[in-house]
Design brief:
D-tyrosyl-trna(Tyr) Deacylase, Chain: A; 26 strands; seven-stranded mixed beta sheet; 503 residues; five-stranded antiparallel beta sheet; Beta-lactamase; 12 helices; 2 domains; alpha+beta
């Protein structure tokens, strides 16, 4: 009843402000104390048409946490600087000599940053098909057995797996896994979990995919009472092959799959290629291994041995899907792993290193090339928006999105953005609204605890990506922070503004 009363009060206030544009009148009342939990939120809103006319504005210069709206900047800058046809390469190389069908040396899987390698994503090649290509190249080179190791080489990226500002809990999840130059299954690992028979009993946990036989797992999750929810988190690091799952799983909850972080993507890739080879009759005497941060090869026992090779002979290179497809998946599924890879690749291409400080420099260079003033309204911390240290103003988003319209990459960038009702994060947004309205909107969502944001474009009826952007197109950014109301209520307010703008 309180929520109904608050809504009625809002509608009455809107009626009193009927002389204002509908979207502006609604925005002006979002921060009123009468709005209950929504009234505690900090709002930043700006929308302009192609002539620069302000259609709605509320705290436009306030820098707020954008969550996954950061991916708008990351994907747009990547498409502008790298090009839609950019692909990531993964090479199969060897050391030693080939004699009588036997390689007296090691096979290296040399990563080039491909985030889609063995991903469950529909755009990615399945592992068995990829491994068949690699085996074919080895056979063509005369290799039928290996007196050595399969080594996963992730040295293409030298920086830390994760951004140092990410929260500790997030780093154990699939959306906070991070990665080096050779990944596998987006460096995620799935576990089936279910409640135990009684409150206080251990949670049932079973590893699902991928296997990581070198890992030492401790499962300390306990079964909670009805209504306890799910607070299971995996705590892990790339410093050692140990991980611990902690938290509570309510006894009334249905079994589910927990998507956790795998910090050893290069080792996992080497293991699965080794497993595929041995299952198809290949003799490999040295097992599988990866390369530690010191440049030493380590096997499943994690004991460093000899120094990894810097020079080797390449047999073949596999290529990822195009950046056009990767950017689309990044924005539609809000894929953090893909987004961080794009940012680090920009840093690598521009400066020679993927360290985050270099990535920020590279991204700001792209923004300046787009003629976007980076001296105000922006603080970049990562590429995905997982960090709460990102601070972007609605004014910056509107200036950036407007500048993207002049980029050769704009048609590709626009098509990478989801539309209401499409697959991905906007599937259920604006349900019940006319298709003609929904097809005019391209936007990116962003959410985390207390944060909900939407930024993008509203195009006129009949607009097709690739055409010049008309002056009646609308660019908007709506950011809400510090809101304790249910997400559904906050989203309803944001969708009301977007709908009023579109109408």
């Amino acid at each position: 009843m309180k929520r109904i009363a608050a809504l009625l009060l809002l509608l009455c206030t809107l009626a009193a402000n009927a002389q204002k544009p509908k979207a502006q009148a609604f925005a002006d009342n979002l921060g009123q104390s009468s709005r209950g939990d929504i009234g505690t939120a900090v709002w930043g809103i700006l929308a302009k048409d192609g002539n620069g006319k302000v259609l709605v504005s509320l705290n436009p210069d306030m820098q707020l946490t954008p969550a996954s709206n950061m991916k708008l900047i990351t994907t747009g800058c990547a498409l502008h600087s790298l090009g839609k046809d950019y692909r990531f390469g993964t090479s199969i190389a060897y050391t030693g000599e080939i004699k009588d069908g036997i390689l007296e040396g090691d096979i290296y899987i040399v990563g080039g940053g491909d985030p889609t390698l063995a991903s469950a994503d529909s755009i990615a090649l399945k592992p068995d098909a990829l491994f068949w290509k690699w085996k074919s190249a080895m056979r063509e080179a005369g290799i039928n057995a290996i007196h050595g190791r399969i080594i996963g080489d992730g040295r293409f990226f030298e920086g830390n797996l994760e951004n140092s500002s990410w929260e500790y809990d997030d780093m154990g999840t699939d959306y906070g896994t991070g990665g080096n130059g050779l990944s596998f299954y987006e460096n995620a690992q799935d576990f089936d979990v279910s409640a135990g028979p009684t409150v206080g009993s251990p949670v049932n946990v079973q590893m699902k995919y991928p296997e990581t036989p070198w890992m030492h797992f401790i499962f300390r999750g306990t079964t909670g009472p009805d209504g306890a929810g799910n607070s299971l988190y995996m705590y892990t690091t790339d410093l050692a092959p140990y991980a611990e799952m902690r938290g509570v799983f309510g006894i009334d909850r249905k079994p589910k799959t927990e998507n956790c972080s795998n910090k050893f993507g290069a080792m996992t890739c080497a293991y699965y290629f080794w497993k595929n080879l041995t299952a198809t009759g290949w003799v490999i005497t040295g097992g599988y291994a990866d390369i530690d941060r010191g440049g030493y090869i380590r096997g499943a026992d994690f004991v460093p041995t000899d120094k990894a090779a810097d020079e080797m002979k390449t047999l073949t290179t596999s290529w990822s899907p195009t950046l056009e497809l990767i950017a689309r998946e990044t924005n539609h599924r809000s894929d953090n792993f893909y987004a961080e890879t794009l940012l680090r690749t920009m840093g690598k291409q521009a400066t020679g290193t993927d360290l985050y400080d270099s990535c920020y420099v590279a991204e700001k260079e792209v923004l300046e090339d787009l003629k976007v003033d980076t001296s105000r309204g922006i603080q970049i911390e990562d590429g995905s928006g997982l960090s709460r240290h990102n601070f972007i103003s609605p004014d910056f988003f509107v200036r950036y999105l407007t500048a993207m319209e002049s980029s050769p990459a704009f048609p590709t960038f626009l098509k990478s953005l989801p539309q209401p009702g499409s697959n991905g994060t906007l599937r259920s947004v604006l349900s019940g609204k006319p298709e003609t309205l929904k097809k005019r909107i391209w936007m990116k969502s962003g959410s985390m605890d207390g944060v909900l944001c939407y930024s993008g474009y509203i195009m006129p009826v009949g607009y097709v990506p690739g055409q010049p952007v008309p002056k009646d197109a609308i660019v908007f950014s709506i950011l809400s922070n510090n809101c304790m109301a249910p997400v559904s209520e906050v989203r309803a307010c944001i969708m009301e503004i977007i709908t009023r703008l579109a109408e």
